[in-house]
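User: Here's a chain of 313 residues. Predict its fold as C-alpha cells.
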Amino acid sequence: MGYYILRRILATIPVVVFVMVFIFSLLYITPGDPAAILAGDQATQEEINFIRNELGLDRSFPVRFVEWSSGILQGDFGTSIFTRLPVAQMILQRVEPTVSLMVVVLIMAISVAVPLGVLAAWKHGSLLDRGIMLFAVLGFSVPVFVIGYVLAWFMGLQLGWLPVQGYVPLSKGFWLWLRMLLLPAATLATFYVAIIARITRAAMLEILLQDYIRTARAKGLSEWAVLFIHGLRNASVPIITVIGIGIAVMISGAVVIESVFALPGLGRLTVDSILRRDYPVIQAVILIFSFVYVLINLLIDLSYTLIDPRIRY
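Assistant: Prediction complete.
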C-alpha cells in the first residue's frame, strides 16, 4: 500500500506544477498591459513602470516564476496591490467563513442526499422515487443564486427565521455561528444534494440486484441492514467519487453564495480582487482552491482501497 500511496502522490506533482504555471501566467495572458490598466488612464509613465516593477513584469517569465514559486513554498504570496497588505494575512482573515460554509454544506448534503438516494432506489418507480428525482432535476436546473435569493426572501424577509447577511465567528458561540450559515449552506447544498442523490440511486439500483443482497434478505436481515450495511457499503465508491468531484462545484458556488449573503470569505475576496484587478490576491486564492481540490481528490483515490477490498493496490 505504501508504494500505491507514493505513486498517487507523485502523480499529483505534474498537476500541481501545471496549475502553478497556468495561474502565474494570468499576468501575461491578460489582454492589455496589466500595469497600465491598474495605474489608470491619468497615470504617468513613471507610475506605470513602478507597478510593472511591483508585478515583476520587467523580468523574464522563468525568473519571475521561480521567485514566485519559491515565495509560495515559504508561505509568502506577495503583497496586495490595492491594500498593500501581505496576501497571506488577507487570506487568513477570510479562511474561517469559507471553511465553515463548506463544512456545513458537506454535512448537510451528505446527510440528506445519501438517504434520499437509497430510499429512491429502494422504492424504485414509486411516487417517492419520482418525487426525489424531481427534486434532483430542479436542483440541477435552477441556478444557485436564484435559490439563494428565493430562500433569503422567504426564510429571512417574509418569515424572519434566519438572517440573510453577515457572519459570526465560531468563537462567539456555536448556535450564532450556525444560524448565520444555515441559509447560505442550504442554498449551496441544494445542487450538491441533487448530484449525490442521483448517483446514490443509480449505484444502489445496480447493487440491489446482486445475489448477495437476495442472500442477506433470505437470511432474515432487516431491510435497514440490507440497504445501509450490505448495499450502501458496496455502492460507496461512485458516491465518494462524486462527492470529491462536487468539491469543485462547491468551491465555485461558494464564490457566488458569499456574494449573495455577504459572507466575508475567500469567495468574496476573489470577487473583490477581480474587480480591482489585484493580481497577487487572485493568484493566491485560485492557487489555494486548486491545491485543496487536488488534495481532496488524492485522498479519495487513496480511500478506494480501504472502502472496497476488490480494488487492488
